[in-house]
Design goal:
541 residues, alpha/beta, 6-stranded antiparallel sheet, 13 helices, 16 strands, 45% helix, flat
Length: 541
């Protein structure tokens, strides 16, 4: 289970720290709106890799977000600034450039992210979709779709199935790769044979009349394949050059970092402008600088940069191998039109057996078709998997409907029939609130995602007090940490204080639209410094 210990939001001028969370049910309350509850909830979600859903008047790109989390007893801190992440694990500090890099880290070190088949291609699900099993924001709610633009509601369902072992892909990835390699070899062999035949099809060649294969029209396909190979070469070269450039830039950074030495016999490295002996490393695209004055921090940054260089070097090697293969195919195709002495070729081959070539071509075509069918079949859901999915979905929906009946026992309320509502009939008001409560609870029960459950404004659209009282015990019983927010009416002040199952974090007295201030700046700066980061970019050293 992943649990939130503390959340930090801030920059050089202002900050806010929220701690005091317990392992069970936490409810952040206030009697006024716009005092910062949503900013705290979104900050936690954002630091854990979700897409930004902050209020429009909150310039989130100007701030750093940190969460301290506990993963089954193992403590970890995550810092995010825009799309740059830094993970602090014990004494290790790991900068991660981009959401994809953080997804990869999460999948390898925190919790595996499933892969689904999207448009025929295996794609690893990112945290922006994965976290929607447990996170419900106040803004942008729509019971008929997911948040974000790349993945859709079908991808969400595929993700859920994949987590519980009911994914559509039935073929081992190694077996799939072997089949694809075999198909590529067959296609290459087919081209070689067709090259031989094409040299016998030109008018005036005696053997051209003996082959049915030679009668095929090759010109259009030839030009199209040549253009495709040329475009592929252009793309591969661009990618190779980009990776090579990034590798060289990182090698330059590594060289500069290694050359820095504050403890030299003749003196020390100092800034000519301010005289400081402190030195820093600025991550591209970030608003902060790693203080690498100490040997320990410098070693960690050096290790991170070296790992990045190794990754780019491996990418360059792979792309260069791909380029050589495409160049070989391109040259082989170009050779098809360069030969004109077809009879000389036939004589050199020693009475070519045209019938044997045709038979081999036919066999190759059949095997390619068979492999393609196997690969296509691997992406289809088998009858067994389809039955398993149906049973699992029925269990999830049964629990959702049980939760709905527990919260709202209206006998006329419609039963939930899917994880999402039809696009033309989304739930509104308190019905939407009940739906989200039911779905998040049911997925926690049946999928066991282990994420903390965060629902901002869990009483949205006037969920009645009776229905709220029916809902809370359900979430108290879950092993997941739960964090809700609620705006209370005047007469409801202190309503959770006597509830032993609820940890109430009260925002009474907070100023509207002024969550962040200078009060927490010292503690916030110390927290940021624990990542080896200086907020002032080294200007005030």
């Amino acid at each position: 289970m992943i649990k939130i210990n503390s959340a930090y939001i801030g920059n050089e001028g202002e900050s806010y720290i929220q701690d005091g969370f317990t392992d069970g049910l936490n409810i952040i309350t206030s009697k006024d709106n716009h005092v910062g509850k949503t900013i705290v909830m979104q900050s936690i979600m954002y630091a854990l890799g979700a897409d930004a859903m902050f209020p429009a008047n909150f310039e989130y790109r100007q701030y750093l977000f940190i969460v301290d989390i506990d993963i089954d007893g193992h403590e970890l801190s995550i810092l995010r600034n825009k799309d740059l992440f830094v993970v602090k694990d014990a004494d290790s500090i790991i900068p991660l450039e981009g959401k994809g890099a953080f997804d990869e880290y999460w999948s390898e070190h925190i919790s595996p992210l499933p892969s689904i088949v999207k448009k025929g291609v295996p794609v690893r699900v990112g945290l922006p979709l994965y976290t929607q099993m447990a996170f419900v924001s106040q803004a942008g709610r729509n019971t008929s779709r997911v948040m974000g633009g790349y993945f859709d509601r079908n991808d969400f369902a595929e993700m859920v199935f994949a987590i519980v072992g009911l994914d559509a892909r039935q073929m081992d990835s190694r077996a799939e790769a072997d089949l694809k390699r075999r198909r590529d070899k067959l296609r290459t062999r087919r081209k070689e044979l067709e090259k031989q035949v094409s040299m016998l099809r030109k008018p005036g060649t005696a053997l051209a009349l003996t082959s049915p294969t030679a009668d095929r029209e090759e010109t259009v396909r030839y030009v199209a394949e040549l253009d495709a190979l040329k475009n592929e070469l252009t793309d591969l070269n661009k990618r190779r050059n980009h990776a090579y450039t990034r590798m060289k830039k990182n090698e330059s950074v590594l060289s500069e970092l290694r050359s820095l030495n504050n403890e030299v016999k003749a003196g020390s490295v100092v800034c000519l402008e301010c005289g400081s002996e402190r030195i820093g490393y600025k991550v591209p695209g970030s608003d902060f600088v790693f203080d690498i004055t100490t040997d320990d921090m410098r070693r960690q940054i050096l290790r991170t940069v070296q790992d990045r260089i190794d990754a780019y070097a491996a990418e360059v090697r792979e792309l260069e191998a791909d380029i050589r293969e495409v160049q070989r195919k391109f040259n082989a195709m170009a050779d098809l039109r360069d030969l004109s002495l077809e009879d000389v070729f036939a004589a050199r081959e020693g009475y070519v057996d045209i019938e044997a070539i045709d038979q081999e071509l036919s066999g190759i075509a059949d095997e390619i078709e068979d492999i393609t069918e196997q690969l296509n079949e691997a992406s289809r859901v088998s009858d067994e998997i389809r039955e398993g999915r149906s049973d699992f979905k029925a269990k999830v929906l049964a629990t959702m409907n049980r939760v709905r009946r527990t919260i709202n026992n209206d006998p006329d309320a419609a039963e939930y029939a899917d994880l999402f509502t039809p696009a033309t009939r989304p739930y509104m008001g308190s019905e939407a609130t009940e739906y989200y409560l039911a779905r998040v609870y049911s997925l926690a029960k049946h999928v066991g995602y282990g994420l903390p459950i965060l629902i901002d404004s869990f009483r949205a659209e006037e969920l009645s007090s009776t229905r709220e009282e029916n809902a809370l015990p359900l979430f108290v019983e879950l092993p997941n940490q739960v964090i809700f927010t609620a705006t209370l009416k005047e007469e409801e002040a202190g309503k959770y204080v006597e509830n032993d199952g609820v940890n109430n974090i009260d925002y009474a007295g907070y100023i509207v639209n002024k969550l962040l201030s200078e009060a927490d700046n010292e503690s916030f700066s110390a927290k940021v410094a624990s990542f080896g980061i200086r907020l002032d970019g080294g200007k005030n050293a």
